[in-house]
Amino acid sequence: MSVLSVRDLHVTYRTRGGGVPAVRGVSFDIDRGEVLGLAGESGCGKSTIAGAILRLLPEGTEVTGSVLLEGEEVLTMRPGRLRAVRWAGASIVFQGAMHALNPVRRVGDQIAEAIVAHQQAGPREAMVRVGALLEQVGLPPRRIDDFPHELSGGQRQRVMIAMALACNPSLVIADEPTTALDVMVQAQVLRLLKELQRDLGLAMLFITHDLSVLSEVSDRLAVMYAGKLVEEGPTAQVFHDGRHPYTRALAAAFPTIGDPSFRRRPSGLGGDPPDPQAIPSGCPFHPRCPEAFDECGRTEPALYDAGPGRRAACLLVRSALAGAAEGER
Ligand code: SF4
Questions:
Q1: How far is the CA of 72 from the CAs of 69, 86, 90, 93, 100, in angstroms?
Q2: Which residue owns the Cα nearest ligand 1 atom 3?
Q3: Cα–Cα distances in Å, from 285 out to 24, 180, 233, 244, 293?
Q4: How much is the pTM?
Q5: What is the pLDDT of residues 189-205, one digit of tens each?
Q6: How many degrees, rounded to 5, is the angle at CA 236 between CA 197 and CA 47?
């Protein structure tokens, strides 16, 4: 059984201007010990998926489909069970640790609080565990008494990672966890996350706009565009031999890790991703696709088989499949 199994997930934000469909039918699985990297430009729906898995989206947001965490449906969980599952079943590391940490409380107390709240230890025992957790993320245990402002950006992010691990979750969601850090620190924190994930056998959903980061940390790569998965498969294959033109554009624009201009235009493509309220007909990528042909404006591609363990949503992949089937006859 997969640690996380997402099926046909749809998320629509409610605004005064009407519904904004941010995620439009996404399915994927993550097994124990596996890292799935989720890539795509800003606004493609990546972080919305993270919010949907932990039910952190604004009230009134419409979420349908299924999110099974170790076989248990999250979308219909009662509030008490949901509180228990957050942190202990699945936890999240956000981009900006300064905003996620309480500035007027010592970091050790904040981590211990999560451990005690989830009844994993009493207050004294929890503090011992916090010291061990800080060591595990490469911080001296004496930093337990520090306030967030006494730590550097990289150290705060290490505290966030310690907090995410505090209740022994089976799934960690890392949502742009290193984007706010400078290049050197980013590389250190990435190495730490990868080592911990491997040592603890965690399932991890790693979300970032930066394909170069995912090429280093993920086992499988999923690329999103306009609220849908457009390609999925083993990381090295997707990265070096993308079947979808959008994936190839992202990979060709391989950036220097941490380059801020890449964040704004990570695909190297002209134009912008579509407004979720005005998604083009046919293939949503066709207005920007260098390989678009007539049918692309009329037919929306499904995810087609694109090799062992691979899928891609492009009509060219469908044609290649049909050609291969014809050749076998
Ligand atoms: Fe490009 Fe057409 Fe493939 Fe869409 S279906 S990615 S427009 S070639």
A1: 5, 13, 12, 22, 27
A2: 314
A3: 14, 29, 19, 10, 12
A4: 0.90
A5: 888 899 999 999 999 99
A6: 55
Cα 283 to ligand 1 centre (Å):
6
Query: What pLDDT is attached to residue 256?
Result: 47
Residues in the chain, total? 329
Give residue for tokens 């990381």: 235
d(CA 297, CA 184) in angstroms, rounded, equals 44
Instruction: Return the bridge partners of 23, or none.
Output: 11
Taking CA atoms only, the protein residue closest to ligand 1 atom 8 is: 292
How far apart are the CA of 85 and the centre of ligand 1, in A?
40
Rg (Cα) of the chain, in Å, rounded?
A: 21
pLDDT tens track for 208-244: 988 888 988 999 999 999 999 999 999 999 999 999 9
> Looking at ligand 1, which atom is closest to the CA of residue 283?
4
